[in-house]
Amino acid sequence: MAQKVLMKGNEAIAEAAIRAGCRHYFGYPITPQTEIAAYMAKKMPKIGGVFLQAESEIASINMVYGAAAAGMRVMTSSSSPGISLKAEGLSYIAGSDVPALVVNVQRGGPGLGGIQPSQSDYFQATKGGGHGDYRMIVLAPASVQEMASLTIKGFELADKYLMTSMILADGTIGQMMEPISFEDTEIKTFEKPWALTGTKCARKHNVVNSLYLKPEELEVKNFERFERYKVVEENEAMWEEYMMEDAEYCVVAFGIASRVAKNAVVSARKEGIKVGLIRPITLWPFPKQALLEAADKVKGFVCVELNMGQMIEDVRLYTQCKKPVSLCCRCGGMIPSPEEVLESIRKAQKGEF
Amino acid sequence: MKTTQILIAGFGGQGVLFAGKFLAYKGLTENMQVSWLPSYGPEMRGGTANCSIVLSDSPVGSPIITSPDVLVAMNLPSLQKFVDTVVPGGQIFVDSTLIDMKVERDDVQVFYIPATQLAKDAGFSSLANMILTGKVLKESGAVPFEGNQQTLEAFIPAKKANLIDANLKALQIGYDY
Fold first, then answer.
1. CATH number of the domain located at residue range(s) A239-349 in this protein
2. Which residue, among A9, A231, A205, A178, has the nearest Cα to A104 in the 3D structure?
3. Which CATH number is B39's domain given?
4. In chain B, count of helices (H) and strands (E)?
5. Strands (E), chain B
6. Distance to chain B for A7, nearest Cα, Å
7. What ipTM describes this predicted complex?
8. Which of A79, A189, A273, B167 is 20 to 30 A off residue A90, Cα-Cα?
9. Could you give the number of structural domains in chain B?
10. Closest residue on chain B to A266 (Cα)
11. For residues A214-245, b (16+ Cβ closer than 10 Å) or e, as one string?
12. Do residue B64 and residue A266 have CB atoms under 8 angstroms apart?
C-alpha cells in the first residue's frame, strides 16, 4: 500500500484530478474551495497542463465546455454562489452531451450567504440548476480519501456516459486534513470519436452543439439522453450501509452530516437503540433500492442534513412513504452536534417523527 | 477503543494550526486514524483561530469537536469560549503568560504554563505553541513523545529544515516544565 500523507480535502481533489489525466482546469476563486485552484496553479504548468483563472465563473464553465468538446479531461471548481453562475454552462454541456467534472464545495446560502459549510445545494445539484431536462451524476464524498477516489470515479463516469459529474462536497471536507494514500489505481480512459480534434481531411467533421430548432429532432435528442440516464440509474448508484443488519431505525445522511450521524448511531447503540445508517454516495442516481428495502425493515427514518430539508424529499419519495421520516437539520453554516442527532433518534424510538 | 479529541485555540499567528498539524502528523506516524479541521474565514485575520484534532485507534467519525478531551488555550477569549465544553475528567492547558484567568471547574485537570515567557527566554518567541504541545504530549498520553524529529521532518519543507531544531527544543521545554 502506498505511503499515507495528510492532505486537505480540496488538495486531494486536485491531486486526484491530475492523476486521472485532467490537464485542463478553469476556475475563479471563492472560499471555501480556493485550495483546489491554488494546487492546480502550482502543479499544472509543471506537467504541461493548463491552469487558467478566468474573468468570471461564467467564462470558466464555457472554457470547460470548449475543452470538453475537444475531448479533454477537464474540470472546474467553485462554491455555491459560483455554481449558480455556472448553471447556464452546465445546461449547455448537458445539451451537447460532452463529459466534464464540476466541483461544488458548498457554503451556506441563499444569495452570497456565508462561507461556512452547508449542503443546501442538494436540489440544485440533483434536480437541475440549469434549464432543460438534464441530469448530472452527483457524488458526495464523506472523507478526504473519498474526495480523491470519487474525483477519479467522476471523470470515468463522465466519459463513459457523456455527462457532467459533480462532486458535491462542503466546506468542512474541503478544509479538513486526513490521511490519504494514492494507490496505483488504474485510470480508465475512453475513446472519444465525437471530439473536435480536427478532421485532418480524413473524416467527416464532428459537431458539438446544443441547438436543435426542429422540435421532432430535439425531442429525439432528449429521448436518447434519457435512455442513457436510465442505464446510469440502473448501474451506478452507490451507498454505504452501517449497522443496518438488525436496525429498527435508519438514519439517512450524506457527506459531512453522515460523519456526525455515525457518531450519534454509535451512541444510540450504547443506549440499546437498534439504529443504522444509510449514506448515499451518489445523490444522483439516488440509491432508491437500498432505501426501499430499508423501508420494509425499519420503523422509521431520520434524515440528517445541513439545509432546511432537501434530501428528505427523495427519502420520502423512494421509501414510498411507507414509514415516517423525521428531519434533523442545521443550516447557514451550522452543523448539528452528534447529541442533536442522537436526540432525534431517541424521539424516533418514541414514535415522535 | 481510544479516541482523543484535542482543541487548540488562540489568535491567528500564534501557530495554532501548525501545532495541530504537528499532532495530526504524530498520529499518522503512529499509524493512528486522525483528522485535522481548522476554523476558516474572516475570523482568522487578526482574530481568533482554532483547530480540532481527533486521534483514534479506530476510524474517525465526526471531525468536528463539540466536547474536547484536551483544550489548549493560547488567549483569554479562547479559554472563556471553550472552558465549559471540555469533558469532565478532561485536561486544559493554559498559556499563563497571556491569560490571567483561573479555571474554576474542579472536574478537569488544568495546567498553567507560561509558554510565551518560556519561549522568549529560550530565544524563540514564536514557539509558545510547541512548548504547550510538548506539555500536552507528556500529560495527555494521546501520542508518545518519542519520534518528534521524524514527525517534523515529515511535514516541514526541506527549505525550512533549519526550524526543526528550535521546534524540538520547544517541545522539550514544554515536556520538562
1. 3.40.50.920
2. A9
3. 3.40.920.10
4. 6, 6
5. 3-11, 33-38, 48-56, 70-73, 91-95, 109-113
6. 9
7. 0.92
8. A189
9. 1
10. B61
11. eeeeeeeeeeebeeebeebbeebbbbbbbbbe
12. no
Cα–Cα distance between A144 and A141 in angstroms, integer?
8
Compare CB distances from B40 to A6, A32, A262 and report the shortest one's residue: A32
The residues pairing with A240 across neighbouring beta strands, listed in sequence order, are: A279
The residue assigned the cell 518567541 is B125
**pLDDT tens track for A280-330:** 999 999 999 999 999 999 999 999 999 999 999 999 999 999 999 999 999
Which of A31, A35, A177, A340 should one mutate to test binding to chain B, selecting the residue with the greatest count of B CBs within 10 A?
A177
Chain B, nearest residue to A338 by Cα: B62
**Residue A48, phi-psi category: left (phi > 0), alpha (psi -120 to 50), beta (remainder):** left
Asked whether this chain's domains A5-201+210-235 and A239-349 adopt the same fold, the reply is: yes
Domain residue limits, chain A: 5-201+210-235, 239-349
CATH no. for A5-201+210-235: 3.40.50.970
Residues near A149 by beta carbon (within 8 Å), at least 6 away in sequence? A16, A141
How far apart CA A53 and CA A193 sit, in angstroms, is 29
Minimal Cβ distance to A176: which of B33, B61, B63: B63
Q: Which of B18, B28, B35, B39 to mutate to test the interface with A (most CBs of A within 10 A)?
A: B35
- Print the domain residue range for B21: 3-176
> What whole-number distance in Å separates Cα of residue A275 and Cα of residue A294?
12
Alpha carbon of residue A85 to chain centroid: 17
